[in-house]
Amino acid sequence: MSATQPAKLNGREHAVQLDAKDPLKSFRGEFLIPTKFESASNSDDGNRPCIYFCGNSLGPQPKRTSKRIASHLSAWATKGVLGHFTEHEDSDLPPFLHIDDAAAKLMAPLVGANTSEVAVMETLTANLHLLMASFYRPNQEKYKIIIEGKAFPSDHYAVESQIRHHNFDPKQAMVLIEPEDPTAATISTTHVLSVIDKHASTTALILLPGIQYYTGQYLDIKAITAHAHKHGIIIGWDLAHAVGNVDLRLTEWDVDFAAWCNYKYVNSGPGAIGGLFVNSRHGQVDVSATKNGADGFRDRLCGWWGGDKAMRFAMGNDFIPIPGAAGWQVGNPSALALTAVIASLEIFALTDMATIRAKSKAMTAYLEDLLLHPPSANSHYKKHLPYQIITPSNQEERGAQLSVRLEPGLLEGVMRFLEDAGVIVDERRPDVIRVAPAPLFNTFNEVWDFVTIFTSACSEAQAGTVHGSQEAAALKGRDQTGWAEIK
């Protein structure tokens, strides 16, 4: 990959200008950005915020999270079980019994759905199992599940176990979509559609990622969903890397179902409670039919929290689900976990996904431009870059993340250098780093700083000289404007 073409406006001045015009610049103050303290050689250096480009793995903590959780703990301490039904004077959150409704209302705009189509509950994989229990109903003619060949392992495990649960053989029933070109990392929409065409007559379900976790590719959810429906196939989406990242429109695109976690771009904490979407046409409840012993709703694995709220504490044995996605709830959700989700969703509610997506496109494009054409003052590369970007260059085919594949043998040295310099990114062995500037809390200055540090890291790793924290100390001699800007 050539590095001879000059970058467009690749000096720090351009980054400063972009940050000055950023409509979301005040949102950084909503978050607690991790510092360099753990690896710092002195206290001044250690108190600097990291360049935290790892929100695709775990988002930083919103400042309001601790306040929200404190109010929850206060309600629990002072009201005990009565907190399920009574308001708490120190909080505008609803009683524990209704806090899941508040979370769903705030979540719906992030996925482009009606509130009734969203539930904040369980974890990603648990939700996938609950959804597949309803939507994967195989028979001898239609029994296959089409998934992406490099799906996140948990998705692969879930699909394989569902197939086995129905007494089918995964070797015959699981169709893996692999790239047309074995040397490529991404898959084209045309290829996805062709695989659906090939297996349509024997396929019971399709489950695909909205954004592929490894490459950062954003699949065409609208087109693929429409094509699946053309063949009469139910399709679901794993949106773990898409929610809070791209502008989703699940209702408009007529998606059947979707599930996601909330600890990545939604910044709700490690292992945060997840979410799911069920299209309104699948969530209808015919109460009269149910009371007469008929099937008045889509079959599911039932639990009392998914039952009609008016009857929930009557303790009867006739299950009538809440219409919509809430009817897929099983057990009493953690009000503490929901409170952490709500704290972050309140920040999203101060803007909209269109604005977030617009900044994200601009920031990722800037990152891509600088990576392909590193600032000349900091670049050691004249004709060849020791890395390549495997994420699609088309902005409509990616979210915030760029996946960068390093030349063999560089990953360990590069990661050590970056960590010593206070840069947090994600690695996928043997040779890929995932870099994800998030528009709510990252800056264009950070992008510029990252590329200057990253190219130095590549150079040091190539030379085999990365061996400890002295690199971080050496960086103190460089221009510190970037660090000052991000404090």
- SS content category: alpha/beta
Distance between the termini: 34 Å
How much of the polypeptide forms β-strand, as a percent range? 5-15%
Can you list the strand order of the major beta sheet? Answer: 4-10-9-8-7-5-6
Count the helices. How many? 16
Radius of gyration, CA atoms, in whole angstroms: 24 Å
The dominant shape is: globular
Report the helical percentage: 25-40%
Low-pLDDT sequence parts: 1-7, 39-43, 468-487
Largest sheet composition: 7 strands, mixed
Mean pLDDT: 90
The overall strand count is 15
Summarize this, please?
The chain has 487 residues and is an alpha/beta fold. Helix content is 36%, strand content 11%.
